[in-house]
Amino acid sequence: MRLFARRCVSLAALAAFAWTQGLSATADELVKFDAAIPRRERGADAKAIQGWLTRPTGAGPFAAVVLLHSCLGLPAARRSMAKTYAGWGYVALFVDDFTTRGVKETCAVDFPEGLSDAFGGLAYVSKLPYVDPQRIAAIGWSQGADTTLQIASSPSGSAFAMPDDLKFKVAAAFYPPCENQANARLQIPTLILIGGSDAVTPAADCERLAQRQSIVRLVVYPGAAHVFDNSEFVGGKRLLGMWLKYDSDAAERSRAELRDFLAAKLAR
């Protein structure tokens, strides 16, 4: 079993940072698309999944972000988060790994399907007429951040039947289990945001990962615990033996870090 499944507690909701808005955004839309098919299974029937799409107003072409949820599914703050990304100028696709599979949560088991779903999301948004397919980022939280680091090590999805010229350009991971990728060589610019006092996914594991490759920007928030950006845990809470605590300063700083990272790396 992967480290994440053994140790990581995910979120029931990702309440947000102090979200600010830029461009206006359309209402989110439920969309259907196929998970990517592994090359070794070429010819197999694709698994239909779904997601929620939010876009800036205007013709584009816009950069896009593919958002990967935690082991408890889509965050309660999904709409406000996606609206914020659209306000920053990005088409936002929140991938829903669970609904079409009839799954409620995957916190105690491995969930390898997350990777094929993420690349299915990449393929879907890349075909939208108002998206620039050369400027697409993967952003994940907890279990989704684990998937994001896997993407960063193979951004073109070489294990899947994907077009040769299609790949994620950048990745951002909120409190990922970095030990799962301890030996990985990341191939695209990657932002890792983690709390210095995170006992669920230790910052030290991410420090070791980042030390070996200049392509990683690691930001550690001293004293911050796991799920530092989730205001549901104001004051801290013990959940399934794990200490989870919201940190308003770390949450605001991480929001700014993500905004600036995307602006720099997804610029035309």
Summarize this, please?
This protein has 6 helices and 10 strands. With 268 residues, it is α/β, with parallel strands linked by helices.
Task: Give a written overview of the molecule.
This protein has 268 residues and is α/β, with parallel strands linked by helices. It has a single domain (3-265), classed as Alpha/Beta hydrolase fold, catalytic domain (Rossmann fold). It has six helices and ten strands, in the order αβββαβαβαββαβββα. The strands form two sheets. Strands 1-2-4-3-5-6-7-8 form an eight-stranded mixed sheet, sandwiched between helices. A two-stranded antiparallel ribbon has the order 9-10. Helix 2 links the parallel strand 3 and strand 4. The termini are far apart. Residues 3-21 have low confidence and may be disordered.
Short descriptors:
25% helix, alpha/beta, disordered N terminus, Rossmann fold, 8-stranded mixed β-sheet, 268 residues, 6 helices, 10 strands, two-stranded antiparallel sheet
Topology of this structure?
Elements: H1 3-7, E1 29-34, E2 48-54, E3 62-68, H2 78-87, E4 90-96, H3 113-126, E5 131-141, H4 143-153, E6 170-174, E7 190-195, H5 203-211, E8 216-221, E9 237-239, E10 242-244, H6 248-265
Parallel strand pairs: 3-4, 3-5, 5-6, 6-7, 7-8
Antiparallel strand pairs: 1-2, 2-4, 9-10
Euclidean distance between termini CA atoms? 41 Å
Strand order of the largest sheet: 1-2-4-3-5-6-7-8
- Describe the global form: globular
Instruction: Tell me the CATH topology.
Output: Rossmann fold
Uncertain residue segments:
3-21
